[in-house]
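The pair is set out directly below:
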Amino acid sequence: QVQLVESGGGSVQPGGSLRLSCAASGYTTSYYCMAWFRQGSGKEREFIANVYNHRGTTYYGDSVKGRFTISQDNFKSTKYLQMNSLKPEDTAMYYCAARWGGCTTYEGDFRDWGQGTQVTVSS
């Protein structure tokens, strides 16, 4: 059974940084994609970044490109989202998601989801 557990959310001032973690278990192959999405209050869920586990290739949404970095540990079981230069508009619930096979940016393609972690950027 696949399980995704996020951690690392919290409150930070504009310009600050946070690092989110997503620990994955239950995948019996390295050929899967993990992604981060976020959903602000009253907004649609937005794609943030993804990483293809096997190769480590990454892709970012325009709103976070250059500020956020997705990475993984040596065992590739935990993915991280390093968020720098945070803005108030980054405030949202952040979710990690995973799917077998290649990466996409469409939330409907992801079967497995974590419980979410709240990020609040405010002065």
About this structure: The two ends are 41 Å apart (CA to CA). The mean pLDDT is 93. The chain is about 0% helix and 50% strand. The longest strand covers residues 92-100.
